Amino acid sequence: MGHSRILFTLAALSVVSPAALAARSNAAEADRKPGEATVTVSAEAQPVEVTRTPSPVRVVEADELARLGSRTLAELLEVLQPGAVMSTGTSGATASAFLNGTLSRNVVVLLDGLRLNDPTALSPDLGALSLVGIARVELVLGPSSVLYGSDAIGGAISLTSLGRGAEGFHGQAGLKVGTDGLRGTTAQVQLSDAKGWIAAGGEATQQNNGFPGDAFHQAGGFLRLGAKLGDADLAGFYRNSGQTASVPFTTLSWPGSGRDYQPGRETRARQESWGASLRWPLAPGLVLEDTLQALSGHTGDPDGSLRQQTDRDFRRVEDQLTLHWTPTSAFRLSGRLEGREDTSHAENYYDPSTFSPVRYRGEGRDLAGALESRWTLFDGLDWVAGLRRDAGHRDLTRLDSGLRSRAGSAEAGTWRSGLNWVLAPELRLYASAGQGFRMPNTTEFALNAQAEAQDAQAYPIAPERSRTLQVGATGLFAGHWEYRLEAQRTRIDDLLAYVYDTSFAFPPLFTSHYANQGSIRAQSLEGALGWRGGSDLAYGWDLILRSQETRDLDHNVEGQRYGQQNTAIVRHPFFTGAVSAFLQSKSWRADLRFDRVGPRYDLNDTTYDVISTGHPYQTLHLGFSIEPVKHLSLALRGDNLLQPKLSVQDWLDGRYDQKGDAALVYGFPAPEPRWSLAATWRW
C-alpha cells in the first residue's frame, strides 16, 4: 500500500513525512485499511503475509521510519513496545531491551538475516545501532531460535537495508539542529535500471547531553549494489558505524561509598560489516539463497577516570545457505545450514596472583541446521512448524603465555509450532508454542576457563533454555476501529548467573565464575485499540496497555518472588501504557504521544541491593511536520518534555532517587527535555 504503518501495534506516531502524505489522495481512507493486509514479513524462513504468521510481529517500513524520526534502534523500540527499552542516560547511552518480560540478553539483532550481536557482550546495545540506510524493521516476539539460533528467547529484531528501489535516480539529504548543541546531517542516493542498482549514504550527529563534559558523537555510512546474472540476483554490501559517548556518572569502588562525577569517562563503539548474497532459482518451486558476511566490532567501556578503557574487539565470518522448496501453493519447506567463526580479544579479567589484567584471545565456532515447513490446511488456516540443532565450542589463548585450552562446548536443540486462522477480514486468531536457548558466549566460557586454570576445578556451563506459549487476536470493526490482544508466558531454566568469590583465601583463589542456576517465569497481557476518521482532514488515536510479571521461581516467597535474591529480573515494569493522537491533512501533520512505564525493581547503584523504583516513569513527545514546497519537508519535534532538568549536584545528592520521572534506570539521569528541527530534501 502507499501508506504503511507500525503493524500489530497501534503505537504513537511522532513525526510524519509530508512527502508520503502528499502521495495519498485520501489519508483517512488509507488509515482505515487493515495495516497488515498486504505486507510480507520475514518472521518465517520465507517471506509471508503478516496476517498468515502465528508469530506476534511489528513492522515499520521506510516511510514510517522517516515519520517517527528515530535515530537508533533503541528509540524506535520505545515506540514499538513501550517500557521494553531501558537506557542508562541520554544520547549514546547503553540501552537494553527486555522483550515480553524476558532478559536483555534474550534478544538477537539481525541485519539482512545475519546476526549483529557482539559475542563478547552479554546483551546487544540498541543505543549504538543506527538506522541510517535501513528501509524496514521487524520485531518478532517469542521463541525465534528455529530461524535465528542463540539468544532469540524473547524475540528477534530484523533490519533490512535499502535495496533496488524504483528505476531512476533518487535520493534525499537532511539537516537537523536542536537544543543542547544538536547538529546532524544525513544523505542517501539510489540509482537503478534493468541491469543493476546501487545505494549509498551516510550520517553524522553530535550533541551535548546537558552536563559539563558530557557529549555524544556518531558517524556512519553504507554502500549496497546488485546485478542480475541470468536468473540469479547477486548483491554486495558494506556498512560501518561508530560513536563516542561520555559516561560521567559512576560510583566509587566499594558498596555504600557513594557517587562520583568524572566528565572524562567515555565509551567508544564501532562496528563494520561487508559481504555478498546470492538468490538463484534452480527450478520451478526450488530456490537457493546464500549470504556470506564478515563483521567486526570494537567496544571501549569506561573503567575509571580520564578515559581509561577496558577494550574488547571481535571479528566474525558467517555463511548462511538456505534451500526453499514449494511443490504446491499449499505447502513449502525450507532447509538451512549456518556456519560461524568468531575471534575476539579482551582484557576484562585479572590474574589473582599479580592483580594485573590478562589479555586473551577467544575463538568460537558454531554450526547449525534447521528445517521449517508451512502447510495450508484449508483456506484461512495455516500451520507452521520448525526444528533446529546448534553445536559450538570456544577456545581460549592467554596472550602472555601462549597457553591454549578448550574453554567449553555446548549443544542445543529447539522447536516451534503455530497455527494462524483468518476467520474474516475482521478477525484473526493465532497461537504458537516453542522452545528457545541461549548459548554461553565467549566472555562466559573464557572466565570459567580462567577459573579452572587457577583453582584446578571444573566449571562447566550449559545453554539457558526456555519454553514459551503465545496466543493472540487482531481485527477491525465498524470501519474505524482496530484492535489487538496478545498473551504470552515464558519459563527460562538453567539461568547463567555470575557467582562471586567469597572464599577470602590467601593466596586468593579465582573462584568467581558463571554457573547454571535459577529459573524465572515471565508472563504478559497486552491490548491495543485504535480509531481512525476524517476525510480531507484525518484524525485518530491509539492506546496500548501492557501488564506483565517476571517472577523468580527459586525464591517464590513473599518479599523475594520478584527478585530480591535473583537480580536477573530487575528493570521489568509491572505495567506500561502509551496513548497517542494525530491530526493530518495532505501537507501537514501533528502528533502527540504520552508513555507511562510503571514501577519496577532495579539495582541500587551504590549498595547493589534490589529495590523498587516506587514511582512510574512518564514522558511526553510532540511532533509537527509540513511540506512548504514540493520535495522539501520540515519537522519540529519535542521529546522527553515531562522530565525535570537535573544538575550534577542533584544527581550526586540523590535528590530524585526512586522518583520515576528523574530516571529510567536507577542511578542515571533521565533524558532531558529537547527540541529539534529537521529539514529534508527529496528528489
What is the fold's blueprint, element by element?
Blueprint: H1 18-22, H2 27-32, E1 40-41, E2 48-49, E3 57-61, H3 62-68, H4 73-80, E4 85-87, E5 95-97, E6 107-111, E7 114-115, E8 134-141, H5 145-148, E9 155-161, E10 168-178, E11 182-192, E12 196-208, E13 215-229, E14 232-246, E15 249-251, E16 259-261, E17 266-283, E18 286-302, E19 309-328, E20 331-351, E21 356-378, E22 381-398, E23 404-424, E24 427-438, H6 442-455, E25 464-477, E26 481-493, E27 496-499, E28 513-516, E29 520-534, E30 538-552, E31 575-584, E32 588-597, E33 601-603, E34 610-612, E35 617-629, E36 632-639, H7 648-653, E37 674-682
Parallel strand pairs: 6-9
Antiparallel strand pairs: 1-2, 3-8, 4-5, 6-7, 8-9, 10-11, 10-37, 11-12, 12-13, 13-14, 14-17, 15-16, 17-18, 18-19, 19-20, 20-21, 21-22, 22-23, 23-24, 24-25, 25-26, 26-29, 27-28, 29-30, 30-31, 31-32, 32-35, 33-34, 35-36, 36-37
Subcellular location: Cell outer membrane
Main location: membrane
Family: Belongs to the TonB-dependent receptor family.
Features:
683 residues, transport, Beta-barrel_TonB, disordered N terminus, TonB-dep_rcpt-like, 55% strand, single chain, mainly beta, 22-stranded antiparallel β-barrel, globular, 7 helices, Beta-barrel_TonB_sf, five-stranded mixed β-sheet, tonb box
How would you characterize the overall build of this protein?
The protein is mainly beta. The protein has seven helices and 37 strands. The protein has a 22-stranded antiparallel beta barrel. It has a five-stranded mixed beta sheet with strand order 3-8-9-6-7. A hairpin with a 2-residue loop joins β21 (356-378) and β22 (381-398). The model is unreliable at 1-38 (pLDDT under 50).
